[in-house]
Request: fold
Amino acid sequence: MKKSLLVYDGSNPLFRAAVEAATRRSDELVAVRWDSEPVQAFLEAQFDARPFAFIFVEDDAVHVGEETVGRVLGRMGFADSLVDGLKRTYAVGGATFGRLVHGRTVADLSGTFPLSADAEAHLAELRRVREIPVQDGPPAGP
Reply:
């Protein structure tokens, strides 16, 4: 089975911690920061652009936006009613939330897309990533 990838905004400590909590119990799910060079190359190959979006790559499908929310939360075992509500919330408030919290507008891109052959070539390296830095800066001293 191919490892799934969760592409997220790693610039915010809160989001890094949330993603770490979502992925720590799964050897099948790897989180990678949106701003990393391998992710940028993957995005360019998949979309002919570098959209700022919440993305989940699962098998040969690329889920974006509210579909990522649904897939990830469903995989974590959340109730369908909660997943549906959070997907609707993301669809309605994602752009505003992105501007306020991330400092940039989230791409107007949502849905599920087939993984392109060019983009798949960038996934081997990404699927080996295992570490999610939760804090910025050097480690605390003794």
